Amino acid sequence: MTRILFVDRDGTLIEEPEDFQIDAFEKLRFVEGVIPAMLKLRDAGFEFVMVTNQDGLGTPSFPREAFEGPHALMMQVFESQGIRFREVLVDESFPHEGKPTRKPGIGLALHYLRDRSIDLDGSAMVGDRDTDIEFARNLGVRGFKLGPGLETWESIAHALVDAPRTAVVERNTKETRIRVELDLDRAGAGEISTGLGFFDHMLDQIGRHGGFFLSLRCEGDLRVDEHHTVEDCGLALGAALRQAIGDKRGIGRYGSAAERTDGEGGEADPLRGGILLPMDETLARAALDFSGRPGFVFDGAFPRERVGDLPTEMVSHFFGSLCEAAGLNLNLAVRGENAHHMVEASFKAFARALRQAIRREGRELPSTKGVL
What we know:
Distance between the termini: 32 Å
Helix content: 25-40%
Strand content: 15-25%
CATH superfamily of the largest domain: Imidazole glycerol phosphate dehydratase, domain 1
CATH architecture of the largest domain: 2-Layer Sandwich
Number of domains: 2
CATH class of the largest domain: Alpha Beta
Radius of gyration: 26 Å
Structural class: alpha/beta
CATH topology of the largest domain: Ribosomal Protein S5, domain 2
Order of helices and strands: EHEHEHEHEHEEEHEHEEEEEHEH
Shape: elongated
């Protein structure tokens, strides 16, 4: 079945001038990111249908010849980049006429409702006005609204093509209020704010070295101590990871395959195997498994009680809480002399192991049991 991207024109494909009429060539400017995004959508199999209201087109207030020149140039630019429109639907009425062909009415697009070859569930509408989103609802397709603080062409293409694994988790108790946002298939720095500066820095390492978008905001009872904030952030982040991973089909599952012995029948060496991460004099190792069975083993001793405003005893407690909520098995070990380096290397090693485990490798479930 064919997926259609219905798109508005003015303010969506091309910038809309103050007088709302693109009736001269010098007014023609493309919206930022539109061509790369549409190429990505085209390559994913989408076809394009333009749906636009052009108030009073063909009347003295908006002569047809003033419209056609800039419109033809716009279409020529798109075609030169390999972007072609299946159909261009133009309503020429004024708003007061209330015609069913004018967005948010779907009179011009009714034939797509009758065409059984169209995948409406997989189709979408992109516009810059509420009427575009209402048009999407009336047609029964997903709606995206462009604008400051809203969607960009890049985010729309990502949402429609990459099938992103996202999660939003809110955890509110008498001790903390936390909101976590994840997108495992999009890199980028989000807002990290917990009231603990060094802890913020460590959480930022997880997103950056994990290769995914992470935003976490926490308001905690720091007047008591740091325990509830750190613990509950671990629980909320773990829940978000579990939600975003979903059914786990296609993931790598393992962060690494750790070797627990020194190969000579001697004592187990916690720094053999796994994801090894050096930081100056420090060496950390992380090995993890999205098995669905939570477990955490930590091997390390920090030379001081605090790094900045973070008690070092809370490092292992954070990871234990995260593993409990995520259904994650994690072995983490660290050796060093500088407590700052040891804590940071631990977070980075975990993030690098996580990056490997969440990587998509197909659609198979990585388990002989048939369930994770």
